Amino acid sequence: MASADASIRRARAFQVDLKNRREHCSVDPARLASIGRAVTHQVRVYRTDGDFGLYTVSEVRPESPDTIVRMGPAGRRRLGPDTEFEGTIDSTGPSPGLPEDKARIEGELIELLDDDDGRQTRLIAIAPHGGAIEPHTDEQAERVASRLAAKSVTCWRCKGWNPDGDPFDRWHITSTDLNEASFPLLAQVMSRRFTHAVAFHGFKSDHPEIIVGGTAPTDLKEEIRAAVAGVVGSGVDVHLAAPEDRVGGDDSCNIVNRLTIGRSNGVQLEQTLEVRTEHWCAIADAVADVYALKLEELE
Fold it and tell me: Residues 231-240: what's their mean pLDDT?
């Protein structure tokens, strides 16, 4: 891993993406190359007098001096007051080799992969925002893999914490931005292309809700919707994503879709915190039951 000095400055007037996206930054190309990263990769930005967070480099733009890193106001507020400040950029994504108990204490991000035979291409269960970022989503992915252990299902997840603040603010990277170049264990399976992929996520809503989305055929998503609705009860709104849903998961760049053949068979479950807290295991079991039948069809 490598780091370099950085001066975090306001986005320029024409950098609309930075102003609209709190997870995005722009970096001078030479400065970015000096830490072994490129555009679309993730980098850590550290504030010398405070916090740090993970960002996506959405633009490269020559700067003078080349230490300048630009963000919109929401991007700067992730690390404290909405001001310009001095800091560093770092090539580290997840902390390599750090045990989960230490990551929790240190407020770190870790990446985990269970991939028994290193070859199977039937199903991968993922949770990009586990730990305290979107609680219980990593447990759900792990539960699916455990329930289907006889099928050697692959499971990839990240877990992040922040004892001094909001783990979401520190670690969340939008699923369409996740780059395997910054996540070494994801890179191990990225080129394999699975028949099925399912991702567990959390989102905020004003009522208990689950949205089933992704690029998978409607009939598969409906099977999962019905199975999940059957275990959470009538008090939870379980429905398929509409085309306009911001968390519909139907972008071909979404990591769950990219993992599948033709980017066409990913399923994404978005769940409110109340639902995940009360029903995470039952939801995972319902999803596993649907995929158990799909995996039998592939044998």
Answer: 97
Q: Indicate the DSSP class of residue 163.
A: T
Paired strand residues for 10: 71
Q: What is the mean pLDDT of the chain?
A: 97
Whose tokens are 């967070």? That residue is: 53
Contact 79, 45 (CB under 8 A): yes
Question: How far apart are alpha carbons 176 and 260 in whole angstroms?
Answer: 14
Tokens of 189: 């399976």
DSSP letter (8 states) at residue 260: B
User: DSSP letters along 169-228, please?
Assistant: HHH---TTT--GGG-HHHHHHHTT-BSEEEEEEE---SS-EEEEESSS-HHHHHHHHHHH
The alpha helices in the chain, defined as continuous H runs, are: 16-20, 29-34, 73-77, 100-106, 137-147, 167-171, 184-190, 218-232, 255-258, 273-298
Query: pLDDT digits over 58-81, tens only?
Result: 999 999 999 999 999 999 999 999
* Residues 212-228 pLDDT 10s: 999 999 999 999 999 99
The sign of the torsion formed by the CA atoms of 289, 258, 210, 279 equals positive
Residue positions counted in the chain: 299
Contact in structure between 11 and 84 (CB atoms under 8 Å): no
Residues 6+ apart with CB under 8 A from 55: 23, 24, 25, 42, 43, 44, 45, 71, 75
Nearest partner of 17 among 81, 79, 70, judged by Cα: 70
Domains of the chain as residue ranges with CATH: 3-90 (2.40.40.20), 100-298 (3.40.630.100)
Confidence (pLDDT) at 49: 85
